[in-house]
Amino acid sequence: MSCPHEEVEPSGAAMAAADEDDAHDHFAKFFECWLTQQERDLQSLRAAADGKTGGPDDEARLRALIDRVLGHYEYYYRAKAASARRDVTPMFAPTWTSSTENLFLWVGGWRPTMAFHLLYSKSGLQLESRLADQNESPPTADLAGLTCDQLERIDRLHRRTVRLEKQISEQEAQAQETVADAQMVELSHAMAASGDAMGGADEEMERAMEGKRERMNEVLDRADELRLETLKAVVDILKPAQAVHFLIAAAELHLKVHEFGKSKDAAAAPTTGRETAASS
C-alpha cells in the first residue's frame, strides 16, 4: 500500500486516510505505514553508524536523528491510543502482526524489559567483535563501550521497569477477572434460562462489556506509556553513537521478526485451505 506521507508526522493524516473504515482497518493501514517509516529510519541509522563521528557537529547530527526516530515512536503510540479509544479489542488480538509476533505479546505489545535484554545482547556481541578485532582496527563508539556508570543506571532502570510491569500485569488480571463478576454471572444465567442471546439481554451484555473494555483500554494505555518511557530512558543513558546502535538493533529485530512471521503465516495458509476443503 502507499502511505499518505514520505514520513510519519504528527498530523493525524495517516489515521484519517479512510474515515469509512472501522478502527481495526484504520490501524492495520497505519501499521503498514509505520513499518515503511521504520525501514527508512533504519537506513538513516545505519548510514549514521557507518559514518565518522566524534566532533561536535557529528554529535549534533546524531542527536537530531535520534530525536526524529523517537518522535516517530511517539507518533506511533499516539495513533495506537487514538485507535484503541474507538475499539480496544483488536489491540489484544492484532491481525496486522504475525502469529509468531502475537505469541510473544504482553498487554498488546512488546514487553518493556525486552529493551534491556536487547541492549545486553547487542553490547555483548559488539564487545566480542571488538576483542576479536582489537589488533586490527581502533575501537568504535558502540555498545561495547558501556561504562560502569551507564551499566549502574541501566540496572536501576531495569529494576524499576520490572516493578511497573508487575503492577500493570496485576491490573490486567483484575480487569480480566471482571468477566466472571456477579453481574456477568447473573446476566449469562438469565440469557441461558431464557434462550435469548439477542434483544434486551444482548444490550445488557453490551453495556456490561463496555465498562470492561474501558478498563482494558486503561491497562493498554499504561503498558504503552511504559514501553515508550523505557525506550526513551534507555536512549537517554546512552551516548549518541551508542543510542544509534541500540535503535538499529531494535528496528532490525522488529522488522525481521515481523517479516519472518508473515512469511511463516503465508506458507501455512495454503495448507490450511487444502485441509479445510478436503474435510468439507
SSE inventory with pairings:
Layout lengths: L22 H28 L5 H31 L12 H5 L10 H20 L14 H30 L4 H13 L4 H39 L2 H40 L1
InterPro entries: Seed_Dev/Stress_Resp_Reg, TGA_domain
Keywords: Coiled coil, DNA-binding
Protein name: TGACG-sequence-specific DNA-binding protein TGA-1A-like
Describe this structure in words.
Helix 2 runs antiparallel to helix 7. Helix content is 74%, strand content 0%. The longest helix has 40 residues. The protein has one domain. It is built from eight helices and no strands. By secondary structure, the protein is an all-alpha fold. Keywords: Coiled coil, DNA-binding.
What's the alpha carbon Rg, rounded to whole Å? 23 Å
Strand content: under 5%
From the N-terminal CA to the C-terminal CA, the straight-line distance is: 34 Å
Write down how many β-strands occur, each being a DSSP E stretch of 2 or more residues. Answer: 0
Helix segment tally: 8
Q: Roughly how much helix do the residues carry, as a percent range?
A: over 70%
Main beta sheet: strand number and arrangement? none
Helix/strand structural class = mainly alpha
- Cα shape: elongated
Structural domains: how many: 1
Mean pLDDT: 85
Instruction: Please mark out the parts with pLDDT under 50 across 5 or more consecutive residues, or reply none.
Output: 4-20, 272-280
- N to C succession of SSEs: HHHHHHHH
